[in-house]
Amino acid sequence: MKTLSIDVRPAEPQDAAAIAEAHRLSWQHAYAGLIPHRALAKMIERRGETWWRKATRGPATILVVDVAGTIAGYATVGLNRSRALPQEGEIYEIYVRPEYQGIGLGYLLFGEARRLLKSLGCSGLVVWCLEESAHASQFFRSNGGVDAVEGMEDFGDVQLKKLGFIWH
């Protein structure tokens, strides 16, 4: 019998290429048809291996879910960027490669991100997602989030509504 290892750990600079690939695949899957193609392509292109290598050095913390040596997803976490909200922590991003979705890795990664923020002394947390992203909204609701705030996000000539899910 073969044992499959699944580990959530802080990202390291040598993970940069794998995170860039997870980012590209998950963003194409999540946002094709929601974010205009040109804007989405530019956002993905901007965050290649070099960008992720620098990002592993802070100020945000990047967690990766490593499945038998493959980076299946990542989360970026840190202090809440919205001064208008009382929640102290924020999960800036949480994405899982499409072929690894639906098996609980997102829940595992989300739980570890929440534990990390709590261990850093953060009271409460916020996560933002596009309103049209039904998959993301359902994920955050199923994890106990309440969509309590709204905002707008600019993508070139298009503005899309975003929802802020909060946990106390």
Short structural summary:
With 168 residues, the chain is of the alpha+beta class. Helix content is 34%, strand content 33%.
Major sheet attributes: 7 strands, mixed
The shape, in one word, is globular
Q: State Rg.
A: 16 Å
What's the end-to-end separation, in Å? 43 Å
Number of helices: 5
Fraction in helix: 25-40%
Q: What structural class should be given to the helix and strand makeup?
A: alpha+beta
* Unreliable residue stretches: none
Mean pLDDT over the full residue set: 95
How many strands?
7
Strands of the biggest beta sheet: in what spatial order? 1-2-3-4-5-7-6
Strand residue percentage: 25-35%
SSE series: EHHHEEEHEHEE
Helices and strands in order, then pairings?
Elements: E1 6-10, H1 16-31, H2 37-46, H3 49-55, E2 61-67, E3 70-79, E4 89-96, H4 105-119, E5 125-130, H5 134-142, E6 146-155, E7 158-167
